[in-house]
Amino acid sequence: MKLVVGLGNPGPEYDRTRHNVGFEVVDRLARRHADPGAGSARNRFTGLMVEATIGEEKVLLLKPLTYMNVSGKSVAEAMRFYKMSPTDDLLIIVDDTAIPCGSIRLKPGGGAGGHNGLSDVTKMLGTDVWPRLRIGIDKPGQFWCSYNMP
């Protein structure tokens, strides 16, 4: 079993904003891969979680509802409950202003790069050795990063 976490902020004022691209990706994965009969997302681990199957792998899709900068609480709760390894079982999806809009960067570990959500996950897990998928959203005030994710 794997855990895929999209970082974002809860609430309608944040829906479909650049900073919530992690939530958007998890929502899209849930629409495409949620297990039949799983129903809608459940409140678990201070977040919304849905079970999915991607390929042959059972995947838990999680959107922490703790706000971006304290996302680590939700991630750590789920990791402990399922006795998962950050290195082997976790993927965090997050926005990145240092990457051009629409570009992605997949890294097996490393620093937070100034991202408070990633910093909090590192703090709560006690390690920064876990995969993260960074999605470019451009720097604020530069170009308007627009994406269309049905």
Question: How would you characterize this protein structure?
Answer:
This protein has four helices and seven strands; from the N terminus they run βαβββααββαβ. The protein has 150 residues and is an alpha/beta fold. The protein has a single domain, classed as Peptidyl-tRNA hydrolase (Rossmann fold, 3-Layer(aba) Sandwich). The chain has a seven-stranded mixed β-sheet with strand order 2-3-4-1-5-7-6, with helices on both faces. It is globular. The protein starts with a strand and ends in a 14-residue tail after the last strand.
Provide a concise account of the structure shown:
With about 150 residues, the protein is an alpha/beta fold. It is about 25% helix and about 25% strand.
Per-chain topology:
Blueprint: E1 2-6, H1 21-33, E2 42-44, E3 47-54, E4 57-64, H2 72-81, H3 86-89, E5 90-96, E6 104-107, H4 116-125, E7 132-136
Parallel strand pairs: 1-4, 1-5, 5-7
Antiparallel strand pairs: 2-3, 3-4, 6-7
Helix pairs in contact: 2-4
Question: Can you give the mean pLDDT?
Answer: 90
How many whole angstroms does the radius of gyration measure?
A: 14 Å
Please tally the β strands and state the result: 7
Name given to the CATH architecture:
3-Layer(aba) Sandwich
Structural class by helix and strand composition: alpha/beta
Q: Which range does the strand content fall in?
A: 25-35%
- What is the fourth-level CATH superfamily? Peptidyl-tRNA hydrolase
Helix fraction? 10-25%
Number of domains: 1
Q: What is the first-to-last residue Cα distance?
A: 26 Å
- SSE series: EHEEEHHEEHE
Low-confidence regions:
none
Per the CATH scheme, the topology name is Rossmann fold
Order of strands, main sheet, comes to 2-3-4-1-5-7-6
Number of helices, counting only DSSP H or I runs of 4 residues or more: 4
CATH class designation? Alpha Beta
Largest sheet: 7 strands, mixed
Instruction: Label the overall shape.
Output: globular
